[in-house]
Amino acid sequence: MSRPLPRPLADPLRSLLRRGRAWLGASHYGARLAAEVSRFRDDIEVHALPPIYHYWSDRYVRPKLETFGFSHPDAFFLTYIEECCVRAASSADCSKRIISLGAGNCDTEVRLARALLDRGRSDFVIECLDLNDAMLDRGRAHAADQGVGAHVMPVRGDFNAWRPDKPYDCIIANHSLHHVLALEHLFTGVADGLAAHGRFVVSDMIGRNGHQRWPEALAIVREFWSELPTSYRYNRQLQRQEEEFLNWDCSISGFEGIRAQDILPLLVDRFAFDIFIGFGNVIDPFVDRSFGPNFSTDSEWDKAFIDRVHARDEAEMAAGRIKPTHMLAVMRPGRAEDQTPDRGTSTPRAAIRSPD
Q1: Is the dihedral of CA 150, 151, 154, 155 positive or negative?
Q2: Domain that holds residue 302
Q3: What is the pTM of this model?
Q4: DSSP 3-state helix, strand, coil percentages of the chain (rounded to 5)?
């Protein structure tokens, strides 16, 4: 008969198991890094999603965001970058410093720069930190083409080793944190690099590592999966049929979702939240790049199916049985308290799904 380990051994082992994928990745960092660079070298549409995703987000996520005064992620970033710039107006250095961590092709940053210029603000530079030279070259060319070359500065660097060399009025991360192995190091750098009036503005995935489903969500996904016609169960990304939904760990070779489940707990320990918006979970596999292309926005059955999955998602999250896998957050150095932020859908602490 097996006996439980003594607590002095069990607790450290449990902690190690929680981070096992991340630390295993650290020992093969070079190979993972090469896989990541290779994967995105020719990826021009990094954030492209299937039409059914936009059906879902326009119908359900957009109204949630509009209660906060913006309707999509670009507007979210623009709103809080502008607020940071306004707070920095009285500083001695009139050039507002913004950095985007893991900017990739710099497409979001170019759009933000263009929007800031169109609103009459020209006193800013957005640094675009990324390790992939090919993506940064595309970003540089795109910025010049859009007339914002003087305001968008591609910077080669690994955010796992990044340290700020000056204060920033705003630090943004657009779906890049779930690629970071050294989250503790990066978040320390963010806290150190923010000016007193600065904010850390993030849109990202905060579900299980490798974008897997936790058991309670996996059971619901498979419940809906059983309703799908065979043709809807084809994985477009991995090019395989999945008669039963496979809880695939996509962090195996690269950094996709490598420590996604650690993002929110670490942020809660290191930052105070102005805004926290959590959403989505069970809906993810049905609208993402793997299976989302199998759905048509012209099909009433398809849309009704997505509507039902979303409704179940909302009911399960409201009951506390599952946690959100997406977040938008605005933070400042400090520590999150248990009360709701100034504005938000819930407390960030309440949105954490503990591996235990």
Answers
A1: positive
A2: 55-70+213-248+282-322
A3: 0.87
A4: 45, 15, 40
